[in-house]
């Protein structure tokens, strides 16, 4: 499912495609995928102009000229696909369709229907629920150390908690821990300074490299132009159970932490 690099890639593509466009109509065919309820939603977004498209954690943030936002969470299989004017077939599984005044359109499609699109008023404090951005200046080594302090949760589970650090999911948590040589089950608060620094640097480096490659396409992730990412060819741990560790030559193991598959190398992730 899309994590920070994939959501960032999608948001960048959407920004190129829809900023400056005005929504002419909205059609919701699956009520549970929008908030507020469909008829209110459809009426509220009509006539809105797209001011900017960005990302916060794993949310795509579509800023509207009125100061409101469309917050989109893609969850498992959600897709936002922009189709130029004159496209005949709708993207399969489209549940929310926004048509712009130039007749281009944005399809919010979702096979498994866990994705959500929410219209947020300017004063709603939605962002309070979302942790620090790992690629921001705010995410200093001191901030990271303070977040880790006293935490007994396994570091891998801690890294997935969106209220602490926003945007990491299973793929990049496993990759960052591999890169830093830190064992995923290690209690977060027990990691000492040199390893904290390595992990902090690894989180940022893995995310930056994955953004540069337009994300990881393991399952069916594609960006807003329908293109696959390239980082799946660079993975060192995630999904590589039984394969040889590229650093130490031992076999990559898969264990379960908090119900999630966790890939790591017992040979070189000892800390
Ligand atoms: Zn290894």
Helix/strand order, N-terminal first: HEEHEEEEEEEHHHHEE
Whole-angstrom Rg: 20 Å
User: Any low-confidence stretches, pLDDT <50, length ≥5?
Assistant: none
SS class: alpha+beta
Number of helices: 6
Strands, count: 11
Helix coverage percent: 25-40%
**What form results from the Cα inertia axes?**
elongated
β-sheet strand percentage: 15-25%
Q: Give a short account of the largest sheet.
A: 5 strands, mixed
Strand order of the largest sheet: 2-9-5-4-3
Instruction: List the bound ligands.
Output: zinc ion
On the 0 to 100 scale, the average pLDDT is 95
How far apart lie the N and C ends?
28 Å
Short descriptors:
271 residues; four-stranded antiparallel sheet; five-stranded mixed sheet; alpha+beta; binds zinc ion
Explained architecture:
- The chain is of the alpha+beta class.
- The chain is 25% helix and 22% strand.
- It has helices at 4-18, 38-45, 141-148, 155-160, 170-180, 193-212; strands at 23-28, 34-35, 50-56, 59-64, 69-73, 78-83, 94-100, 105-110, 116-120, 253-257, 260-264.
- Strands 2-9-5-4-3 form a five-stranded mixed sheet, covered by helices on one side. The protein has a four-stranded antiparallel sheet with strand order 1-7-8-6. Strands 10-11 form a two-stranded antiparallel ribbon.
- Helix 1 (4-18) packs parallel to helix 6 (193-212) and helix 5 (170-180) crosses helix 6.
- The longest helix is centred in the C-terminal third of the chain and has 20 residues, at 193-212.
- It is elongated and about 55 Å long.
- The model has no long low-confidence stretch (mean pLDDT 95).
- Bound molecules: zinc ion (ZN).
């Amino acid at each position: 499912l899309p994590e920070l690099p994939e959501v960032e890639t999608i948001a960048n593509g959407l920004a190129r495609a829809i900023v400056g466009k005005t929504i002419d109509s909205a059609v919701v065919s699956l009520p549970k995928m929008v908030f507020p309820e469909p008829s209110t939603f459809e009426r509220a977004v009509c006539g809105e102009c797209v001011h900017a498209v960005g990302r916060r954690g794993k949310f795509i943030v579509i800023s509207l000229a009125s100061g409101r936002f469309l917050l989109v969470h893609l969850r498992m299989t959600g897709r936002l696909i922009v189709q130029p004017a004159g496209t005949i077939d709708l993207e399969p599984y489209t549940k929310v369709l926004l048509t712009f005044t130039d007749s281009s359109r944005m399809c919010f499609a979702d096979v498994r229907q866990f994705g959500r699109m929410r219209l947020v008023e300017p004063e709603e404090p939605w962002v309070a629920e979302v942790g620090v951005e790992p690629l921001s200046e705010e995410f200093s080594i001191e901030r990271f150390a303070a977040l880790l302090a006293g935490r007994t949760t396994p570091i891998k589970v801690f890294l997935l908690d969106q209220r602490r650090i926003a945007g990491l999911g299973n793929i990049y948590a496993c990759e960052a821990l591999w890169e830093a040589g830190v064992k995923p089950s290690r209690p977060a608060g027990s990691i000492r300074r040199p390893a904290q620094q390595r992990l902090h640097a690894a989180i940022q480096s893995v995310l930056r490299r994955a953004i540069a490659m337009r994300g990881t396409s393991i399952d069916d992730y594609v960006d807003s132009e329908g293109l696959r990412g390239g980082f799946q060819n660079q993975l060192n741990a995630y999904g590589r159970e039984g394969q040889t560790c590229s650093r130490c030559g031992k076999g990559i193991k898969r264990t379960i932490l908090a119900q999630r598959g966790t890939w790591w190398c017992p040979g070189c992730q000892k800390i």
